[in-house]
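Question: I have long wanted to understand how a fold can be written as tokens. Here is the record:
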Amino acid sequence: MYNKSLFLGVGLCLLLATSACGRSTTFSGRYTGDTSNLIEGTSLVVNRPLTVVEGSSQVIGRAELLADSRLVQSAEELRYILSAIPQSGHLLVGSSALTVNGAFTQADIDNQRLVYQHSGSEQLSDGFEFAFRTGEGAPQYRFSIIISAVNDLPQVTSNSGLTVARHQRQTITSALLWAEDADHPDGDLIVRITDIPRAGELLLDGEVLAANDTFAQHSISDGQIAYQAISGDAASDGFDFIVEDSAGDDSGKHNFAIAITGPVAYTLGGTVEGLNGANLV
């Protein structure tokens, strides 16, 4: 006749596989309490968010992602199967980008082969989802990624120059000169004149701009910036500028080119127009 209490105790001991019963645990000792997948023999032990600087890449290591399993013999066999991929970057193993249903292994993590590459977008969070097996009912996990924002430099997106008739004034429109900034409203960017025209004048609402003067970029879209051609014989002109944001970062120096057309004026006891370079004697 068996001892019923002893039998139940031994049975429970074998079911839980605990060291209290004189046996070693089936896990490595890193287990931290996630029981959602124990029945399948795989446990997610570490799942800490990764912080990545905007536009850069970062290795996902054991400090961020670690699993343990009694069903495999090595880290190469422990597979993370992707059910959702990052939306603001790429998940790479080596140089290969992973897709939905693609997989990486614990060995990839252990050997620093798993990398997240941010796209440089302004989204400040990302992540991916995975399971340890395919099929209906497989427990799903999410790995979170925090993006540390950086200030993007203004980018000059239109700088096509201007063509103006001699002695005429012409407005510089946003189709001819414009900059964009992912972190700041375009109209609030500041244009700084670093070198002025030599054959004419750059005007802000009719007032002449000097070297180092500034104006808000919305002055261009408001139709307040113009060039007045003055020289009677120059065929070209221009000015240098930079575009600054409110953080003090700038686009670097650019040149806005101006072509001056029309007949050259010659003077012989007065002004004669329209001779197109004919010699006066």
Notes: The first strand starts at residue 42 and ends at 47. The first helix runs from residue 4 to 16. Residues 92 and 216 are 42 Å apart (CA to CA).
